[in-house]
Records
---
Amino acid sequence: MAEYTYEQLKGMTVAQLREIAQGITHDALEGFSVWHKDHLLPVLCKVLSIPTHHIAAGEEKARIKAAIKKLKTRRAECAKAGDEAQMAAVRHQLHLLKHRLRNMAEQAA
């Protein structure tokens, strides 16, 4: 079995990842032939014992973006209600989350 890095696997097409999975017999890869790349990549990394700290950053990004979306809805509600103090607090939270996203992007580059 060839040695791969996360970056190498991430750069491959789903067809290439499926070829690699085809040569591996593991219960976690059962039904891999219909999986999308987003599902196949982390499972392959787990089976091949490849560190996936990059995936965790992606999950963190999704969590932050979901929080930003909720805060934007809350900000609109505060604006509609005319609650300036609460709106300022929500804007501050938005600022902090967006700053964290920018820092994550800089670290990834």
---
Amino acid sequence: MNIPTVTFIYAYPLDVGRRRLFEEKNLGSYPSLEEVKKVIQHWEHVWQETNQDNKVMQKLVEVSRRVPKRALECFVFGGGLNPMSTPFLMPTMARGGTTRSDENFIETMIHELLHIFVMHDADTYWSMVREKYSKETPLTQNHIIIFAMLAKAYQYLFGQMPPSFSGGDLPEEYSQAIDIVKDVGYEQVIAEYNTLVQ
């Protein structure tokens, strides 16, 4: 099996556009080009250390039973948008305009990678989720399996639950998905996924 790798790329056009928007709309401070590039270099080092011998990527393949069908190019920019998996974007600024900590960077990376891993070939699973959790918003529904797999990966890799499971300033729909995972149990959520995804 070919274990995928992540490449960090400076998202030049996006970063320039976001910086200009922050200036024009007086939205607060925005990292300079040099600051963003320095963060990219730092994150490359942090990711390399965390993923030593591909242990993170191997665990994500094992947990999700999937290998992404696309290149894992993570486009890095200063801020003004949330992290996302499609396209794979990572702002250097966290919520509230603070610099993203290494801990937050690693959790966010694994979170977004899991979205990429589970997004394809799982129609039967997603149909079940839409029906079983029909009272929840689509954002909550989409994150139940993500937080379950995140919990399992964190237990294996770091011997603890992800920092987001301790609460904090998460949006309500994310917190609701975490509550469901805590209530049902991450192993049970993943077992349900495994019965529906071949």
---
Amino acid sequence: MEKRIWKFLLVFFLLSFILSGCAYFAARNEIKAAEKATAELKGAGGATLAPYEYCSAESFLEISKFVLMENSWKVSREFSARSRSAAEAGLAEVKKKK
């Protein structure tokens, strides 16, 4: 009986470790996508043509990186998704004005 409990605990800890690693990498990938979109917005002149979206994208990205260091991966992923969304909206705004 005791062996069975140990096996269960081992499997439980391994699965929880693996799943938490997936959340970390998902957050990192979302941050990379947000960085790319923000860089595109900056390169397209978003700081002057779409300042609200540009500042929002930069701020959300900064918060996302800070929260990632605090090991709150789900929240970090949400902020980086907001950053990417703001950057994409800014790119659309820049394209309208050009």
---
Amino acid sequence: MWNRGSLVAAAVLAGAFLTSAAEAQQWLPVGTKVDIYGCVGRSLNYLCPIITDRRTGLFYTIIQADPQPDPAKKLVVHLTGTIESYITFCWSGPVLDNIKWNYTRLRCPRPK
């Protein structure tokens, strides 16, 4: 017999799965060209460089950028690239390839 605690736990788990599926659907298809103004940082597991789009808030993995933008400069980066289907160990957004970037004069906001 189900008790109230089991029903709440099941509802929370279902919500978590649905939220993850909704977030995954926001990713753009492979081959899409992106033009981003954002701040660079590290992925959730601190293993990979990422950029966060200032307009949409989406994360993109930029391990293919050569050279890598330096997060310590705290400057907004203008970056263009193409979404690829690489599999990585990063806990972040889609991987970009064919990356071109440059620093802007804008400053990145302080982390909260």
